[in-house]
Amino acid sequence: MKKLDYRELEYAQEDSRLCGAFIKLEERLAFSFEVFHKYISRIRGESLRGLMVEINRIMMQEEGIEDGKSLRTDSTVVETDIHYPTNNALIWDCIKTSHRLLKKLEEAGKIRKVRNSRSRGRRMSFKINNTKKKEKRAELFEEAVEAISVQH
Length: 152
Hints:
With 152 residues, the chain is mainly α. The protein has helices at residues 6-15, 17-22, 33-40, 45-63, 87-107, 118-129, 134-149. The protein has two domains: 6-63, no CATH class; 87-149, no CATH class.
């Protein structure tokens, strides 16, 4: 999420109690950047993909949304006006959707209070749409992506 290299990750785990708690190192000695590199570089994309599929399957079964035994689809074609999927529109959609899903988890008691970043995301989306300079737009995109990560 923060695009840290291995040396920065080593520093972050020593510097941040939250990071230490996340990687379960509160009472252990910190890992060196060499250890991070050795083990993180072994993780393949297929492994992460498989892990995410399994996590989603478990969550859907626990929530009673889907049992994974059948698939329902609707192939009805309806003419409609849709917005062109620009990067900005996709980020804004991610902000709205992630907030909606996090709110459902909060209401179910699975997580604590969710911070609402939709208004910040909406402002970022508007600024990105109206910014002419490519460099400034890139900065605004980073802020919009940050708005997604701040929600939880």
